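Hi team,

Filling in the usual template for the complex we talked about on Friday. All components are listed, including any nucleic acid strands or ligand strings, so the model treats them as one assembly.

SUBMITTER: L.P.
PURPOSE: interface mapping
COMPONENTS: two
RESIDUES: 751
SEQUENCES:
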Amino acid sequence: MAGYSELIKNFEKTRDYMRDFFIYGFKVRGEFAQKSARTYDDEKRRAESWLGNILRYDDSLRGRQISISTDSARISENPLYRAYYSKSFTDNDIKLHFYILDIFADGRTLSLKETVEAIDTRFDMYFEEQTVRNKLKEYVSEGLLKSEKRGKTAYFSLCENAEEYFAAIPRLSDAVKFFSESGPFGIIGNSILKMHGESNDKFFIKHNYIVHTLEDILLPDILQAMEEKRLVGFSSFSAKKPADNIGREFIAAPLCIFCSVQTGRRYLAAYVPSQRRFHSFRLDKLKKIKLLDKYDDYDKIYDAFSKNRRHCFGVSFGSRHEDGHTEPLVITFHIDENTEDYIINRLEREKRVGTLEKTADNTYTLTLDVFDPNEAMHWAKSFIGRIKSIEGGTEGLRKRFISDVTRMYKMYGGDVNDDIQ
Amino acid sequence: MTIFSEIYGVYFRIAASVLSRESISSDEINDIIIKQGFNDSILFLPQKLMPRPDQSDWGLLKKQADKFIPVIKNKPVFIMTRLQKMWLKAIINDPRIRLFLNNDDIKILETKLFDVKPLYTNDNFSYTDRFTDGDDYENETYIKNFRTILFAMKEKRILNIQYTSGHGHRIGGHYVPFKIEYSPKNDKFRVYCYWLKRKAVKRSLINIARIDRVNATDRILTKSTSEKKFFEAERCKEPVLIRLTAERNAVERFMMEFASYEKHTERDLDTGICTVKMWYDGLDETEILIRLLSYGPVLEILGPPNFRRHAAERVFNQAKLSCISNISDN
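RESULT (copied from the run log):
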């Protein structure tokens, strides 16, 4: 494996592999068809190097399956964060990093020329002015250094030490521990903890979709576009056709990130001007985000989006344009009011945009005025055993529900053992 | 500006740890690499950190007698980067921040970050299927209770807790909290505790919002405890065994939805059928059952027998409500 390195230049390829190891633990070498066998071997070895003890190997007739096997509710630190800490760099990058920070750690304010001289004097190492200039510029942009102009010359000095934050706010450490594992960009909180020599030892996150961190790499450009009311270009790949290597190109105005805390999916809710439609794009299926021009109609579209989302049960806007009709869906439940209060509470807290009312003794009716009634059915079926009737929606939806119950009835032995209660 | 940058990377962090020592031996360098690095880092890093005759190292250490000393004069500094500041500015706007920081803390942080834009705002994200009865993070009693628990965890302090259970029973006693759990789905915090009952140490999980009163005692738990054993005891006795068909993209949907659980999956390439063993917490059995049933006929619960029986009961009740019975094979 000559030329193998555990560091990587490109996050996108690794993101695909890590996701596949984690989500689809059943794939074997030959099924990672999108890249060469050599690429698979390198990515596999990197995953082994980064994740070591949480990788699981199972040998089957088809070959060896590798999976990231972990109970995400019982881990203190998202193991997938390690992929972010593997960016490759040059020898000059690391030398200049420690040399420059050391020079400025004296508390000095120096020009480019003085910095080059100081490195030469202190470390007996000469770097071209251009090389040092680029690094200083990069570190000003990263916020490690600050610059100020004196006349025509830029002077550089060090930004505030991270320790001063923790010294001034001792309780900050616990807050960072929590938010580093919960919410968007937890990896950034984790990087603060690592810098501070700490790790999360207090919090577990239940219903924890650790794989979301791999999508966070896309978010800064999308969030910037939202803030600046700009369009973005991207490729969207089909979830149903894993072999889809090309994807479809879209130009859209990003409006919100929809997060499903039950299905594990996150979506970019956006407006596609060429189709005059709102869309929700799976974040894990997006690539090559490009920031484009300002979108003049952004405010108008955002207002329409805010109104429309009141009719989304989940993330689907149905097949409509900016405005259109909804498809009311009415589900009636049988609930024993004396003993099953908790079911009524469950409906109340989980009904989202629906309206729940008592319509008879032990009978409650939920009305959902939504664009895509199909989307509510996965959730509705979690009440199997209590659904008295389903009205509205489409005929196909109602027929499918009856067909599903019939198939399940047979599947669980209903046709041969009707007396099970 | 991205988090995928070498300045946050493991190699830079290891180099900083090595450079923070006044002098260091090669064994100590190797120990740091093994402790902080990836599994293979030990194959690549020693020769880059320690001086080499051909100068192919990073030029960060000099040899001095049988040890190495840093070429830098100062200990490596850690600067809060712009990206990290933007993240801190974003979390200040999260209502849960008040569980950790008081108004003075928030003011100090806001002053430090006065010229920084937040990385994101709460409006940028919408949690489409989060339960609506989440905890009230602005309730002063809740905040006080949360902080008392958090503080007690640091030193294994024994707490006197009174709470009302989900069934409405008043329960009280001495507890030692050791982990706080948050669920983004429920939007609730719960605390795992050792419950000191006479001379026994029992397991307990308490919803923080259900706590009526919590006071710190002047006692510390000295008995040794094992978190690992605590959570092993919570785990199901047998994994649930599931068969998934390739219909309706069920495999992909299931693998995403249940990604957070420990699983073992096998797939039949000819039929596309997946068989999955999945482990879960015993307390979550009903939640798992209803989530599995929501997949309809594309998912079958094969075992354990008791789990399958619970599923069958619900399906048969539904068949009755939908007037389905005595179905023939046609």
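MY TAKE: Chain A has 13 helices and 15 strands. Residues 164 and 170 of chain A are 10 Å apart (CA to CA).

Thanks, L.
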